[in-house]
Amino acid sequence: MSTLDRIAELEVEARAAIAAAGDPDALELARLRYLGRKSELPLLLRSIGSLDPAERGQVGAAANQARKTLEALISSREEELAGGELSAALDISLPGAPPLPNGHLHLITETRRDIEDVFLGLGFQIAEGPEIELAEYNFDALNTDITHPSRARSDTFYIDDETVLRVHTSPVQVRAMIAQPPPLYVIAPGRVYRPDNDATHTPQFHQIEGLAVDDGITLADLKGTLLAFARQIFGEQREVLLRPHFFPFTEPSVEVDVSCFNCTAGYLADGSRCPLCKGSGWLEVLGAGMVDPNVFAYVADYGYDPERVTGFAFGMGIERIAMLRHGVPDLRLYFDNDLRFLHQFGAR
Questions:
Q1: Which of 50, 120, 227, 314 is the most core-located residue (most Cβ within 10 A)?
Q2: Domain locations in the chain as residue ranges
Q3: CA-CA distances (angstroms) from residue 161 to 13, 151, 175?
């Protein structure tokens, strides 16, 4: 057999061995067998000088080409085997370890939706309005006197003399009355802003306000509506208590308490005073009242004759409702983005 034929035969054998190598160790053995320092092909290259001068060029070229071909095949096979090992070791279709939990609604969003569901079930509709509001709608249309403390720049964020960041969602009630004649039953959820910041007040928070306007609405209708709300949010055994108060846009005005769901008449089973209601047996939840006729007078041209229609309004802080339901000690926890806190309130 000539030297050229032997080189061709070695290349064929090596190709088969490289293709058959099933793991990096087997491939390394094939490399050593056919390209190692003491293997036949490198020895042929080193012995070219002993050949007849007429053969040296052809043998040298053939041996070098075979070596380069086999080196390329080995390199390609190494990449194939490395990819196979990675696939076997790592199933990228599997979740992370440990698997990441599914996302869930923020506690404020969850509470807002729960409250909305209650009032939607009672026949109310959802109305929304701008957070940057005209001072006219934020104050004047709601019977807020020019000397009222809430109009001071220390109590309200002013954009300019005529524009504010709304301090409540009550302006939405005015906009809803302008947009639709009575009867009207709406709730107005959304963000509001006041320059406060402590454990029970934040510069930005969320409210849901409600408005019902129709013929013959009374304070009893307000109490019945709020009782239905309290029992669905805080438990079927709840009662509500209305206490006299003052708000510029309602007359008469009331503060609304709900009976404490954490105790019996202010005391726990072990006889200690309830830490939630401070022993009173009641929790303050919202403000409400009958719509002041002056508010109706502002929108009288839109069908709200104060001599004909009556209505009630109420407003509650969503953060406060969530605080009472879940025992949250500091409103600022809602905005700290601490996952240890947020993950306590996953989907129920």
A1: 314
A2: 3-89, 107-345
A3: 92, 11, 20
Q: Three-class SS of residue 207?
A: strand
Nearest of 18, 146, 5, 129 to residue 73 by alpha carbon = 18
Torsion angle in degrees (nearest 10) through CA of 269, 273, 278, 283 = 20
Question: Do residues 322 and 111 make contact, with C-beta atoms less than 8 angstroms apart?
Answer: yes
What CA–CA distance (Å, rounded) separates 2 from 157? 98
pTM given for the model: 0.69
pLDDT tens digits along 232-261: 999 899 999 999 999 999 999 999 999 998
Across 22-37, average pLDDT = 85
CB 227 within 8 A of CB 340: no
If 0-12 CB within 10 Å is exposed, 13-18 middle and 19+ buried, where does residue 232 land?
middle
SS3 content of the chain, % helix, strand, coil (to 5): 45, 20, 35
Mean local confidence (pLDDT), 146-158: 91
- In one-letter notation, the amino acid at residue 28 is E
Return left, alpha or beta for 109; rule: phi > 0 is left, psi -120 to 50 is alpha, else beta.
alpha
- Give the span between the Cα atoms of 21 and 3, in whole angstroms: 27
Quote the tokens at residue 157: 């964020």
Burial class (CB in 10 A: 0-12, 13-18, 19+), 281: middle
Fold of 107-345: BirA Bifunctional Protein; domain 2 (3.30.930)
Q: Where are the beta strands (DSSP E) in the chain?
A: 125-126, 132-134, 158-160, 163-165, 184-193, 204-214, 240-247, 250-259, 282-291, 310-317
- Distances from the Cα of 56 to the Cαs of 11, 37, 50, 60, in angstroms? 19, 20, 9, 6
